[in-house]
Amino acid sequence: MSVRRGSSVVVLALAGACSRGPAAPSRGAPPAVSIAPAPSAARVGVSPPSQEGEPAPVPSESGDQVRLERGACLGSCPVYAVTIHRDGSVLFDGRAYSPLGATRARIAPAAAAALLDELTRAKLLELTWDEDCGKPKYVDLPLATLTLRVAGKLRTHRFEPGETCAPPVLEAFGHRIDEVAGTDRWLRSR
Fold it and tell me: Would the pTM count as exceeding 0.85?
């Protein structure tokens, strides 16, 4: 019996690299991420990761926040999360096909408060729908997760653009969150 040592070394090296690689993202509920106000949109280092691989939360002046996460597609869709707090602090966390790592910025507190009030008036905290009722029209669109926390109430909605059952307001508010946060300031640089 002959042993091919060259092949064994390659297989063992690949197996070792795979075991140390990042875990696949979960479709479970996203942890809430809070940030402290920052004076500018300066690039900052990534906080130490938590067990789930998310940046460690930093306390904010206000618990009211909205978080939008955009997942991967079959192509090169930007994968990121953006969190807006009522006090105007913003955290952009790039994960793939976007600048990687956490970046803090500020927007006008009035703009952040207006967005949170708009989401609350649209009753996103009370909105219910069957998230498993239909198949998406398109198979290459990323999963989006919108999480709203206002006055101690928390509600998370997961949807895919073009999904047959998702209320259209979810996709519209996803675009609105990106607009208010100024997400393209980071995505343009990729």
Answer: no
